[in-house]
Amino acid sequence: MNGDRHFNKQFLCACLDQDHYRFQPSTWKQLLELQISLNDTLHVLRHGSIDEEPEFDATLGHWRFTAHGKSVDEKELTITFAFVETEGVLILTIAE
Which residues on adjacent β-strands are paired with residue 23? Predict the structure, then answer.
């Protein structure tokens, strides 16, 4: 897996296509509260832009990336995620 700060869109899409991702429990709560579907989340990760420099999370020991984009129904979303060796992609937060 990609543990450094280099972002690889092909690797992200491969992880999503193979269901190598998981949500933090708090992220599921965010999805329900914001009425955002799993499909919307995956759409933004696949098609959104990742323009910002990643931030290192020393507590969890991985780089956090941020994707910005529109959901299937044109809702602007921001999704923070990380590449984690055991899970592939760990989805950390979702916001409108």
Answer: 91
Backbone dihedral angles phi then psi of residue 68, each to the nearest 5 degrees: -120, 140
Strand order in the sheet with 55-57: 21-23, 88-95, 76-84, 62-70, 55-57
| All structural domains of the chain with their residue ranges | 9-95
DSSP assignment, residue 30? H
Read off the tokens for 23. Answer: 């949500």
Structure tokens at 36: 């955002």
Give the pLDDT score at 1: 44
Domain made up of 9-95: CATH architecture? 2-Layer Sandwich (3.30)
Q: What distances in angstroms separate CA 36 from CA 4, 11, 31, 58, 73, one per listed residue?
A: 29, 24, 5, 29, 10
pTM score: 0.85
